Amino acid sequence: MDTKTLQQLSQEELIKLVQQLQLKIDLLQKGVQEEPVDFKRLVEAADDIIFVLDSEGNMIYRNRAMEDLFPVSRKDAIGMHFSLYLPAIELDRATTVFNQILFEGKSIHNEKMKTFDKDGNPVYLMANLAPIKDDEGNITGLFGILRNITEMHLMEKKLKESSRRLEEKIKEQLRQAEELKRLSTLNDEIINNSPIGIFTIDPTGIILTENPALRRIIGYGPDETRVGMNLTEMPGFSVDLKKYLEEIATQKKPVYVKNLTYQPTNQDRELTLNVRANPILDFDKKVKSILIMIEDATEQAQIQKRMQRAEKLSAMGLLAAGVAYELKVPINLLTIDLNFIENNIPETSPIHDYVKSMKDELSRISQITEQLLNLGKPGDDDVETFEVHKLITSHPIQITLNRLQKSGFIINTAYPKESPKIKGRKNQLVQALLHIISNAEEAMPNKGEIRINVGSVVKNGEKFASITIEDTGIGIPPENLSKIFQPFFTTKGPKSTGLGLMVTYTIINNHGGAIGVKSAPGEGTSFKILLPAID
Ligand code: ADP
Ligand code: MG
């Protein structure tokens, strides 16, 4: 016991010490020798408040610690009733407690109490109070140990307060997370319903996420995924995507590529795409991922192209018609002169052959001018309504196809018994088809196959009659595809006019239709004509 100082003792040990002290006092009163340990000095020096009351509640002992808390001098304190010590607001409660101990023998163990120091500051005490009993068990007094736990209490309070704040913070964060989740599902909805293909890739091109529009544009099923694949290894793009990724990685700026051509694997239609790539940077300002948005601008680009072509062609058509008109008179004069020469040379003269050839060429020139003149003439004198396959069964086309078949071409025509009806100038439309057929013939110097199909298609809710004319000829190089409808464009040398497809285009256009071409050099060419169908 004497090896420890009082401050190091637990409350239980202190209680025991006080009991022993009381015992010592009793023993002393009975004349027994005091032991050498100076308990009184130890108790006096303790930080805990230690006091003893007699059976009536009068103070018979208190240590220095109590004096610090309740400013009553030691002289005055001894013999004073406890009620005179305590702050008024504590009196009721303390009286109840002390009476319970002194009259009922109860004890109080580690109970928290609040009181006030001499300056009026709150003080929190941990109280241990117990009755003192004599040999017969009668209560002769009360001893108490009060430990000042104000600091601990305040710390506890602070701890509670900060844990409450922490809890609030967590709640707020949870609420924010909830909000974020709600926002991200909203984002998901937008991304899922967007007509724009939206996906993310890592800096090397590996696809991380994809949306339904991307599936549609790139051309794969809703059950398939491209996540995990490398974008730069995907076929069909007309440019080297790696180059763009490097550019994004080094410049860390968005890249926008307009009118990029893409060939989907599941359809033969080539697409025009507008692609925007936005780098997403991490904290170190390194490219973490790239957000890519792909817009299918095929329709847009086609409309633009068609518009440009139509403008150019209609201006050219007007010019051509004007030239043709001016040519009519000289051609007539030349024909008359040739007839005169023919009639005035001997029957046996070889000049007859030359004249015949000149007359043939002249009639070809006259034919061309006729065609060009017709283009400029809108009137609806010979407009009629007929089934579109009647164009194929028309006399001029049948004669041409028969001639081709006889000279070794394979001719395949397919049309339904009842084909869609169209309204227009049959003669002009037949002319248009003849231009395409003669081009097909010229594209197959070693013979080949010509396939003609008639059918119907619905586009944007409108019904069209369709005619496709395919050949297995030399094909058209991609760089020429945009030029073939231009007037005077030809790859066949000075003997050709380069007007055939221009005339064809103008006729189809005048009928409210459209003409398109697909070609693979060395494999063949396919022209498709759409004409508005009549119910
Ligand atoms: P021309 O036949 O007098 O050359 P066209 O306007 O009829 O003029 O055709 C223009 C050009 O388009 C041709 O010179 C040729 O290069 C190309 N072309 C048209 N049709 C075909 C085809 N079926 N196969 C290959 N090339 C074609
Ligand atoms: Mg031609």
Task: Explain what this protein looks like in three dimensions.
By secondary structure, this protein is of the alpha+beta class. The strands form 4 sheets. It has a 5-stranded antiparallel beta sheet with strand order 2-1-5-4-3, with helices on both faces. Strands 7-6-10-9-8 form a 5-stranded antiparallel beta sheet, with helices on both faces. The protein has a 5-stranded mixed beta sheet with strand order 12-14-15-17-16. Helix 9 runs antiparallel to helix 10 and helix 12 runs antiparallel to helix 14. The longest helix has 46 residues. The chain is rod-shaped and about 185 Å long. Magnesium ion (MG) binds next to helix 12. Adenosine-5'-diphosphate binds next to helix 12 and helix 14.
Draw up the topology in text.
Layout: H1 11-29, H2 39-45, E1 49-54, E2 59-62, H3 64-69, H4 74-77, H5 88-104, E3 108-116, E4 122-133, E5 139-148, H6 150-193, E6 197-201, E7 207-209, H7 212-218, H8 241-251, E8 255-262, E9 271-281, E10 287-296, H9 298-343, H10 351-375, E11 383-387, H11 395-406, E12 410-414, E13 421-425, H12 426-442, E14 449-459, E15 462-471, H13 478-481, H14 500-510, E16 514-520, E17 524-532
Parallel strand pairs: 12-14
Antiparallel strand pairs: 1-2, 1-5, 3-4, 4-5, 6-7, 6-10, 8-9, 9-10, 11-13, 14-15, 15-17, 16-17
Helix pairs in contact: 9-10, 9-14, 11-12, 12-14
The structure holds adenosine-5'-diphosphate and magnesium ion.
Residues 435, 439-440, 443, 471, 473-476, 484, 489-492, 496-502, 525 line the site of adenosine-5'-diphosphate.
